[in-house]
Amino acid sequence: MNKQKTISETPIDIEKIRADFPILSKKVNGKKLIYFDNGATSQKPVQVIDAIANYYKDQNANIHRGVHTLSQEITVLYEKARATVQKHLNAKSANEIVFTSGTTESINLVAHSFAKKFINKGDEVIVTAMEHHSNILPWQQVCEERGALLKVVPINNEGELIMEEYKKLLSDKTKIIAVAHISNTLGTVNPVKEIIKLAHEKNIPVLLDGAQAVPHTSVDVQELDADFYCFSGHKLFGPTGVGILYGKEKWLNELPPYKVGGGTIKTVTFEKTEYADVPLRFEAGTPHIEGGIGLAAAIDYVNDIGLDKIAAYEHELLIYATAALQKIEGVKIIGTAKNKASVISFVVEGIHAFDLGTILDQLGIAVRTGHHCTQPLMAHYCIQGTVRAAFAFYNTKEEIDEFIKGLERAIAMLK
Hints:
Layout: H1 14-19, E1 27-28, E2 31-32, E3 34-35, H2 46-59, H3 69-89, E4 97-100, H4 103-118, E5 124-128, H5 137-146, E6 149-153, H6 163-169, E7 174-180, H7 192-200, E8 206-209, H8 221-224, E9 228-232, E10 243-247, H9 249-252, E11 265-268, E12 273-275, H10 289-305, H11 307-326, E13 331-334, E14 343-348, H12 353-362, E15 365-366, E16 368-370, H13 375-380, E17 386-390, H14 397-414
Parallel strand pairs: 3-15, 5-6, 5-7, 7-8, 8-9
Antiparallel strand pairs: 1-2, 4-10, 9-10, 11-12, 13-14, 14-17, 16-17
């Protein structure tokens, strides 16, 4: 996933890895499944599936405050999962790890809690032209509510942020910046460390949407100096319905609770409530217990393989698929940044992306078609949508070969 690397021998045991993912042996429309929709959600290894099943078979109880054995055991396991996330992100403390339902809730939590205390009329919030709707709408909403302005960092035709324009947008009115670490549509790896450094020179906090980054690369929040970092479990080979908000403890202590209820309090009277310390003040109600445990199992799984090895192998797949697509007449790749993750979006002249996706599905090939929750980005390129192929470490060059054959067949049928 770094800048151009020489294609090397496969650094991972691909056959062993594929055997860990039961769904990869499934047939779709009589064809062996080729799953290239990893940008939307990833498949799950047996280690994650077993962790979830074991919770319901042997460990099911509610966490925190229970005096009985099952409750105490599962509380320890759940908090161990929090510590696993802390270590994975290299956060200073487990108190900086908040369990949420996913990236979307994490961003909403920060946007609404931060705005309540820090954003007022005339203030500004900065996002970029390549953001997922989940990193636009919450900020748009709080700006409308507080009378603030939403500013947008533009991109060039390659799909890279125009950093000179970003610098111009920074001002005393800027209260927070929200940026995708990696674009879900373009695969662009943004210069987030530089973005954060420039913001911090003006004492502006930065939130990173890491939904597309954590499956592909190691993330060190202290090295990045991120103020907030969000991601979803289901893109990291874990369960749906669970996600993470990392926040520097100093910031989390400043934010009022986003949702309130059981689990978020120290004491309650009808006159006044004293809320729990972080992170529990942000975790109202019974959490997605098995989700947290499954996410920890997924993190252990990718770390056992090695994220550096995963990144190198996925970069091989990206280079291989890009070269093959560029040979097909009429194909135009959208997003050609110098630094990309293993995501390719493309259009074919005169053919609707939905039609291509439908024919590919008949051949057992799963891709994503449409605007990918990035309609402003589609408007920038003056297109309605793209076909997106997003690769994971369980994909192969042989699958890419079948994808290319299928795409050529689909184009021939539709022209």
